[in-house]
Specification:
The protein has helices at 50-68, 110-118, 122-129, 138-148, 162-167, 176-185, 192-195, 210-216, 256-263, 322-330, 339-345, 384-410, 427-437, 449-462, 468-474, 490-503; strands at 6-12, 16-22, 28-35, 47-48, 75-82, 87-91, 101-102, 171-175, 189-191, 201-202, 207-208, 225-227, 236-237, 249-255, 272-276, 280-287, 298-303, 311-318, 354-356, 374-376, 417-420, 441-444, 477-481. With 512 residues, it is α+β, with helices and mostly antiparallel strands. The chain has a 7-stranded mixed sheet. Strands 3-2-1-5-14-13 form a 6-stranded mixed sheet, sandwiched between helices. The chain has a two-stranded antiparallel sheet with strand order 4-7. Helix 10 (322-330) packs antiparallel against helix 12 (384-410), helix 11 crosses helix 12 and helix 12 packs across helix 13. The longest helix is centred in the last third of the chain and has 27 residues, at 384-410. The mean pLDDT is 91. Residues 8-263 form the Carbohydrate kinase FGGY N-terminal domain. GO terms for molecular function: ATP binding; glycerol kinase activity. Its EC number is 2.7.1.30. One of its GO terms (cellular component) is cytosol.
Length: 512
């Protein structure tokens, strides 16, 4: 393998887009990032401009290469990882979105979900998809866009023509990976992990489910082709659309949390990781068995390599963790995320203050779309330090909620938990997490494992890496946080549960 070639990874997240370039040792040689606008048309609604995301993607690719002094022909392959469930519908003729992308956090279809729940179809959906019926997933988002698209954005179309055009394949639907693959290669493709997050894909039959498509009135003609996460046949090349001055295979894609699972080299049954991003997502590899959850977790596809069986995972999806730190900034309680560690250490406790950051409802294991953010226990003596510490503790408590559910479903006592994402740079949070879930926390040297996982998937597809053992050898520990034997958070955790109960079912009777 040439010392002068690399693999690139597009990491398209909820708040911004990053492009990273990795060498054969899995080390970062180039990195660029750009934020995009968060659009909030109404309370509980969250949108992104898919065109802005594409513009930013091109910009960060060019910036990263330029700043590192690399040429595009030094890239052996490009992998993609993406915010999952976020849904785009675009015109096949013009290549333009017909509506802003509906973000995974968006709650506008909560009423539709409650209709399905009232029709007693929740278990039917779970058996096919492994998912909880929730506005989080793509199915109701695609349905909403088709029902509400602005006809001005549809070439040659009247409002009543929208579904006709979708039925004829003149409209395309996809998650953000599909949008970027389309813009990079001209092909309409997704991978199994992203397909498994739409609530339209049967994870046992590994195909789009006709009954679910009928339920949500989403035409099959507008759906992407589903391919392995690491695809020896490639999704296409950049030369097909004239982007970059090289013929680079786009050969790997995984939803962000599955990419982190892959990047953390959790290739074996029982391996687990937790990613702390906008939300937090704990995944445990369950091998070739799709383990049904009885404790509010999701059964999902972990990854698939070409010619090999699908690997499944149990997942606990927490909607708001890192976004709670951003909220502290928005409220001017902190100037930047790094400040939280010093402020949290400056007090011995939260003084019985609990923050439940249910800004877009509660995910696993509660699944309450009408929960809302709550602060309880404040007195006149409450200072910002207490609120900041309580916010960090909320991240750890939510993770414990999921960890307990995961151990109950899997029957496996969790060993050391591998962690990644921006928030794990906070040593106070990592130690707090270890103490609250009573499990050692292991932070790798390369904590941008989401991008690394998609690079690994693409690199394996083109032979840049040949075996999983090569990837295991790349993984190195930066720091391990051992459980403090003197720490005792049991009573605090009980109070946390009480605080959650006060946040649940808040946005009802027009509360949104």
């Amino acid at each position: 393998m040439s010392q002068d070639t690399f693999v690139g990874a597009i990491d398209q997240g909820t708040t911004g887009t990053r492009f990273m370039v990795f060498d054969h040792a899995g080390e970062v040689v180039a990195n660029a990032y750009e934020k995009h606008e968060q659009i909030y048309p109404e309370p509980g609604w969250v949108e992104h401009d898919a065109n802005e995301i594409w513009r930013n993607t091109k910009h960060v690719i060019n910036t990263a290469l330029d700043e590192a002094g690399l040429s595009s022909d030094q890239l052996e392959a490009i992998g993609i990882t993406n915010q999952r469930e976020t849904t785009v519908v675009w015109d096949a003729e013009t290549g333009k979105p017909i509506h802003n992308a509906l973000v995974w956090q968006d709650r506008r279809t909560t009423d539709r979900v409650e209709e399905i729940q009232a029709e007693d179809k929740v278990e039917w959906i779970r058996e096919k998809t492994g998912l909880e019926c929730d506005a989080y997933f793509s199915a109701t988002k695609a349905e909403w866009i088709l029902d509400n698209a602005d006809p001005i954005k549809l070439s040659r179309s009247r409002p009543e023509d929208v579904r006709d055009r979708a039925e004829s394949g003149e409209l395309m639907m996809g998650t953000i990976d599909s949008w970027l693959i389309y813009k990079l290669t001209g092909n309409h493709i997704t991978d199994v992990t992203n397909a498994s997050r739409t609530m339209l894909y049967n994870i046992h039959d590994n195909e789009w489910d006709d009954e679910l498509l009928e339920e949500f009135n989403v035409p099959a003609a507008m759906l992407p082709e589903v391919r392995p996460s690491s695809d020896d046949e490639f999704y296409g090349t950049t030369s097909d659309v004239g982007f970059l001055d090289a013929d680079i295979p786009v050969a790997g894609a995984l939803g962000d949390q599955q990419a982190a699972l892959f990047g953390q080299t959790c290739f074996d049954e029982g391996d687990a990781k937790n990613t702390y991003g906008t939300g937090s997502f704990m995944l445990m590899n369950t091998g070739e068995e799709a383990v049904a959850s009885e404790h509010g977790l999701l059964t999902t596809i972990g990854f698939q390599r070409s010619g090999e069986p699908v690997q499944y995972a149990l997942e606990g999806a927490i909607f708001i963790t890192g976004a709670a730190i951003e909220w502290l900034e928005d409220m001017t309680l902190i100037e930047n995320a790094a400040e939280t560690e010093e402020l949290a250490r400056s007090v011995d406790s939260t003084d019985d203050v609990y923050v439940v950051p249910a800004f877009t409802g509660l995910g696993a294991p509660h699944w309450d779309g009408r929960a809302r953010g709550t602060i309880v226990g404040m007195t006149r003596g409450t200072r910002r330090e207490h609120v900041v510490r309580a916010t960090l503790e909320s991240i750890a408590y939510q993770t414990r909620d999921v960890a307990e559910a995961m151990e109950a479903d899997s029957g496996i006592d969790m060993g050391a938990l591998r962690v990644d994402g921006g928030a794990v740079k906070n040593n106070f949070l990592c130690q707090l997490q270890a103490d609250i879930i009573d499990t050692d926390i292991v932070r790798p040297v390369v904590d941008e494992t989401t991008a690394l996982g998609s690079a690994y998937a693409a690199g394996l597809a083109v032979g840049y890496w040949e075996t999983l053992d090569e990837l295991r050898d790349n993984w190195q520990v930066d720091r391990e946080f051992e459980v403090d034997p003197d720490a005792d958070y049991e009573s605090n955790y009980g109070r946390w549960k009480e605080a959650v109960a006060r946040a649940e079912d808040w946005a009802r009777d027009g509360g949104d």
